[in-house]
Amino acid sequence: MESYLQNLKDNCLKITPRRKAVIDIFVSNGSRMGPYDVYGKLKKRLSTIGLPTVYRILSELKDIGILVQSISEDRQLRYSLCTLPDVHHHHFTCRKCSKIEEVEFCNFKGVSRFIEKKFNAKVEAHQVQIEGLCSECK
Ligand SMILES: [Zn+2]
Ligand SMILES: [Zn+2]
Ligand SMILES: [Zn+2]
User: Fold this and answer.
1) Would you call 101 helix, strand, or coil by DSSP?
2) In this structure, is residue 97 part of a structural domain?
3) What is the CA radius of gyration of the chain?
4) Angle at which helices 35-45 and 17-29 pack, to 10 degrees?
5) Domain with 53 in it: what CATH number?
6) How far is ligand 3, taken at its centre, from the CA of residue 63, in Å?
7) Is residue 13 part of a domain?
8) What φ, ψ does residue 106 adopt, rounded to 5°?
9) pLDDT by residue for the chain (138 residues), tens digit each?
């Protein structure tokens, strides 16, 4: 929990009771949840919260890497907690059950070097979408 709160600070997001409650729900449930699931659980703690606020907080937490977004087979948004928010890594998403695995392996140095050489550019960041079927779904 502490490292997620630190992560908020590092990204200039205030630690508000609402943001904290959303993170806490993911930490204590540990599962994939859609905006409505999160909203339902939040409503019990913070009765004044509205669904648009939940959407906004989920998207903020996704932008700073605390949550990982995936889309389930029935085209619903799902969010999972990233357990390595401080480390550069990638995610493998199962396209069937939208389970997310942490991939602490990055092999992009070669690609970056290729781009820098070919375009005489400087590569600063990259995002990769890795999808497939998990061990239970394949
Ligand atoms: Zn992660
Ligand atoms: Zn799966
Ligand atoms: Zn990488």
Assistant:
1) strand
2) yes
3) 17
4) 120
5) 1.10.10.10
6) 16
7) yes
8) -135, 125
9) 888 999 999 999 999 999 999 999 999 987 789 999 999 999 999 889 999 999 999 999 999 999 999 888 788 899 999 988 888 999 999 988 888 999 999 989 999 999 999 999 999 999 888 999 999 999
Q: How far is the CA of 104 from the centre of ligand 3 (A)?
A: 9
- Give the per-residue pLDDT at 111: 94
Calculate how far, in angstroms, residue 113's C-alpha sits from the geometric centre of ligand 3: 13
Residue-range definition of the domain harbouring residue 77:
2-132
As for how many domains the chain has, the answer is 1
Q: How far is CA 133 from CA 31, 46, 81, 122, in A?
A: 18, 37, 19, 34
Contact 54, 48 (CB under 8 A): no
Contact 89, 106 (CB under 8 A): yes
- Residue 138 belongs to a domain: no
Asked if the structure places residue 38 within a domain, the reply is: yes
